Amino acid sequence: MRWICQAEPVEARIHSLVPQTPYQPIEVEARIPSSAPQTPDQPIEVEARIPSSAPQTSYQPIASEARIPSSPPQTYHPIAAKTLPAETPLTEAEIRAFKEAVRRSATQMESLSADFTQSRHSRYLAQAAESRGKLLFMKPGRVLWKYTFPSPYSVLFLENRMYINDNGKKKDVNAGKRMEKLNKLVAGSVTGDMFDAPEFTFSYARSGEKILVRLTTREASLKKYIREIGLTFENNTVSEVKMTEPSEDYTRIILKNKVFNGRMDASVFVP
């Protein structure tokens, strides 16, 4: 458990008795103990550690005094440190077994519904743009992304067409082979059954209980829009999709509350 201060600049003063020896600036990790006085401008003791990467120059110990200025809000919030499991490449035997398990799941899946959260990360955005909604899938290849936040919006992939409904304003897109490829890509991302797609090269790794599949774009026409697709599998079904563009901007979609082969009315896929 780590503690962080909200807008917590700390003012440090070096006493006048400090020997004026040459030094190199280094970064240190400082923690304010929970017993520290929560009043402005009162001296406190802090625990500081010099990282191993710091320059190893000789120095003389000095005394320092830290004060919390009166300007920042005096609120502290505990946060949990999260360590991600290391990624381990799958062996050829593990890859074959994984593909077979995913294909079995995809074959048995007639329909899927799930809640999704989508976050758009761009160098032009100060923070990620988040959307939420419902994903509906029904064989053969009918996919509906129904956004409910921040505003009503839906995208329907049906055969070789894409239908957009922007809060009542409908648009029908037909782009021939290109749209057919996009529709297969979207459906394959949902079911995870896209290991034979010639447009990509594949790599497989394990991270804890999850399997990570990275699809690197090979086809020149597709590279303009998508550099890489990352699929995260849990229990042989996709739980997360990450699409990275050539600019390194990316979109991450997380699926939750998945229901397989539940009752679903085909009329929801009518444009």
Task: Report what the structure shows.
There is one protein chain. This protein has 2 domains: 1-82, no CATH class; 87-269, Lipoprotein localisation LolA/LolB/LppX (outer membrane lipoprotein receptor (LolB), chain A, Clam), CATH 2.50.20. It is mainly beta. 13% of the residues lie in helices and 43% in strands. The protein has a 12-stranded antiparallel beta sheet with strand order 8-15-16-17-18-19-9-10-11-12-13-14. A 3-stranded antiparallel beta sheet has the order 2-6-4, with no helix packed on it. It has a two-stranded antiparallel ribbon with strand order 1-7. It has helices at residues 92-108, 177-191, 220-223; strands at 2-5, 11-14, 29-31, 43-44, 47-49, 64-67, 76-79, 87-89, 111-121, 129-138, 142-149, 153-158, 161-166, 169-174, 200-207, 210-217, 228-234, 237-244, 250-260. It is globular.
